[in-house]
Fold this protein.
Amino acid sequence: MHINHTHDPALRSWVDSAGQGGDFPIQNLPYGVFRRAGTEERWRAGVAIGDAVLDLAALARTRLLEAGHGDGARLAQRAAEAAAAAELNGFMAMGPAAWRTLRHALFALLREDVASGVRESVRACLVPQDAVEHRMPVRAGDYTDFYTSLHHARNCGKAIGNPNMVSPNFLWMPIAYHGRASTLGVGQQFHRPLGQCLEPGAEAPVVRRCERLDYELELAIYIGQPNAQGQPVPLGQAEEHVFGLGLLNDWSARDFQFWEMAPLGPFLAKNFATTVSPWIVTMEALAPFRSPFEREAQYPAPLPYLDGAGLRQRGVLDIALSVTLQTAQMRERGSAGALLSRSNFRHQHWTVSQMLAHHTMGGCSLQAGDILGTGTISGPEPSEAGALLELAQAGKQPFQLPDGEQRSFLHDGDAVILRGWCEREGAARIGFGECRGQVLPAIA
Ligand code: MN
């Protein structure tokens, strides 16, 4: 995926709110599914531009995309019609040529030097973002969660006194478990889960409310182009199967997790809720923010199927991330919350293409709309931890919030807000928006 005119930081949109510095300039153009809040309107896909959503269903009806004539214009119109649906799966399955064609066509309609007649027709398809509600941008058939941050693995091992959190296989393959797709959602509010817990020193487990509820700062990898069962995706082609990335919060019940997870991995500790952001940022939008993949000499070099020239040149994505906590008390006072940590996806031991190549090497098929969680994204510094387990040392070091409240794990009423953005010299800043979820009291 190479740099082209849709990445030019000098180009502007006629949408005034899409100026530089925000999450959604014309160089971004992320996809989501929305409708006007409080209505029974049909769900349809849109693209974020400034503080508005470009309604793709309305745009497809104008047939403006076809006005350019030729094969490209026809493909753009077909792509917009596919993307206008209540879920992005159909459009995502069309593959990279369709994704690129629609991005470039939308860019042409939104740039400031477009003819004024076209501009007014497109303007009629804009809906203010603060007037819409979202749902899952895809119908996710499967969800896999990886474990690819060496810093996270080490920090967790230290926090819970388990030296095996960096298992011998970690350095040789991107480790993962198959997660639960049915409880993925956007803007979730969920009840604190019940589960089994073995208290320290006890001989038998008890059933109770989770007392060690945590978040995990992750990215969601959205599969676009599927691969057939029995046809592994080679590393060099892996990103042709990735439509884009969003933010993902892998809520975790730590007290259940460490009792249930040996020997088959997390189960109820992770299956009650997983929250994603409304917007999917495409791989093409991320093209200016790539770096070479380098493996430090003290670690084994990747096996051949996890290595390649493209990876070595540009396999790493530089995505800044942050976690904000808004307690019930803060919300009542009108406070937007307190920053808990910052991190960056570039610190991960394994990349997007390596996760995909490993996932499929034995013949596993991936479908359009499948989601791969990257695993918690923790950086090398203690302040860059992507989970409370690390920040508060498994409850041993509770920390103080600016308003005097204390936290080791999440309380009822707590909302966690993940953010992501990309900034680099010579490129327009682009953002991921927010991934917001809130803890409600347990049902029983
Ligand atoms: Mn996770």
Notes: The chain has eleven helices and 26 strands. The domain at 143-440 is CATH 3.90.850.10 (Fumarylacetoacetate hydrolase; domain 2). The first helix runs from residue 56 to 62. The pocket of manganese (II) ion is lined by residues 145, 216, 218, 250, 373, 375-376 (CB under 6 Å).
